[in-house]
TrEMBL record:
Protein's recorded name: Galactofuranosyl transferase GlfT2
Family according to the record: Belongs to the glycosyltransferase 2 family.
Pathway the protein acts in: Cell wall biogenesis; cell wall polysaccharide biosynthesis
Segments forming domain Galactofuranosyltransferase-2 C-terminal: 458-654
Keyword annotations of the record: Glycosyltransferase, Transferase
InterPro entries, sorted: GlfT2_C (IPR045699), GlfT2_N (IPR040492), Nucleotide-diphossugar_trans (IPR029044)
Coiled coil stretches, renumbered: none
Name of encoding gene: glfT2
Gene Ontology MF term list: glycosyltransferase activity
One Pfam family hit: Glft2_N
Highest taxon of the lineage: Bacteria
Amino acid sequence: MSATNLAVEQLQRVLLPRRGEPADVRSLYLLEAEINKERLEWNDRFSVSIPAGAEVSFQTYFNAFPASYWRRWSQLDSVVLKLNVSGEVRVDLYRSKIDGARIGIEGAVVKDGTIEFEVSLAPFEDGGWIWFDVTAESDAKLEEAGWWAPVAPQAQVMPDGTEVGPFEARATVGIPTFNRPADAVAALEALASDSAVDAVIDTIIMPDQGNKHPADEPGYKAAVEHFGDRFFEFRQGNLGGSGGYSRIMFEALGGVDGEGEAGAAKSPYILYMDDDIAIEPDSVLRALQVARYAKSPILVGGQMLNLQERSHLHSMGEVVGRHDFMWTSAPHVHYDHDFSKHPLHDRGKFGDKPDAPNSRDLHRRIDVDFNGWWMCMIPRVVAEQIGQPLPLFIKWDDAEYGLRAGQAGFPTATWPGIAIWHMAWSDKDDAIDWQAYFHLRNRLVVAAIHHEGSVNGIVRSMQKATFKHLLCLEYSTVAIQNEAMKDFLAGPDHLFDILESSLPRVAAIRKTYPDAVVLPSATEVPKAVGAPGVPTKDIGGRLAPIKKAVWLAKGLKHSLSKENSEFHEVPQANFAPIEARWFSLSRVDGATVTTADGRGVVYRKRDRDKAKELAKEAIALQKQVAERFDDLRRAYRNAHSELVSREAWGKVFDEQ
């Protein structure tokens, strides 16, 4: 502890919730003790009044300091907690171990002044956070608090051993948008709302790829006037996320010749953000400081919180499985963690099963292969060296960029406390709707470029998926996945050619299948007659594998029999998404299934001949993928440098 000026540069401001936030969202910022007789009060995001006798803990997602990440990736050996207090309080500083166990560091009473604590990062090799609790000895006010670096950032080491930087805290922010004008304007307003964030923004680049333009939205004019000559909008055809983000990088780097007006600031960092998000603005500053203090240039990823359940964290980080080349949660990550029910101090109970919900694993450092582009900061030196995103439209472009960066010696870290709120994947049908084409085609393209070893695991996972889709009467999904394999097998030379045309082609295919046609309600078709004996609930327990084997046998027997076309006019059942499983759909000839967002239904109709035709085509294509994968691997790798070049993308943008 010291009252001297140890703090040199702020890394992370201590934040208060916005006024009026519900209790579950407040738990991301502070935890008021249950014994408190009065609630804490605040009028801004940075200072809070604490009644005498009240206690508050900042062991929370946005205010604890993720020490293990700074220990692993940064130049720092220590961090400084700096607080400015009026009144008299006791401050207690703690850290955690990899299993969430709490360790006291030190404490002190402070009255009407500023206090600093310097904490070593040495004990955080594998995990752990640092946080502080405050007890008010009198009516008091925490005027300001934050985590600081005791030194300025130094030069960073490139993979070849040369040094770059240190870099200034400046960024170009890129927000591609497609028919979300209100969301796009809200994102601009959020960035402008915080003066400290506004001060580090060199440029904002917004590719507009839709026919509903932010420029027509209330608030757009004021937002653009606020940013003035720092704002650039580029209207272009629908090139998907990869086309939008590639345009951002292309313009931030000044175009083909490096002299483009939108890149004149030559920002040292490029920040990617989705348009349909809500952002905690301090995340921009935190990402910048992580990037500036890193030992070597690093891609800094923001984590995703659930926009509809805002105390829920989607995931701490993701990797690509090397056996089947499918993205998945990193080891020790728990999907959809609810901080309001399981705050960081929740270590569970003695004797809990390994999968019991608690927060122990949130104290681990999670290492990742890539980060989603809902929020990701890319150093300019990385973009200049490894190139543009692949022309994949959507899906896998962010994963491929992270894998490519990693192979070039530039890691990715998905950083706790740097976050946005985004719609959860559970509210989308993207595994079976039009996006299924891009999921598979792009997975194969990226695997050809980055996967080492046998393709057998990938092919087996495709075979399993095809079988499951057919059992679930998802014929449109199998049809467009077959189209995805055809486009992969056609090689890399046509990827730019089909960048805009793939989506309309896939949409046209899907229109011919009833399982892809969304109806407003199940009341649009006759009342379901019932499907007695068909299971609708999953089961667990010791006997579950035996019961499911029986279900599978019955489902296969039914699927191989001739369908009853009467149920193509009158459904047997109306299934909610949670009931629309292989063991239910494989036993019916016609049923409505509610979409994931609950806004409509599709009518799935069993057609044995169509299923047989799709299965036969899928098997043949999967065989071709297996047989030709090594040749295609060479072809895609040879074409890669051209596919990610500014020159190739420049030609695409010139045609827009």
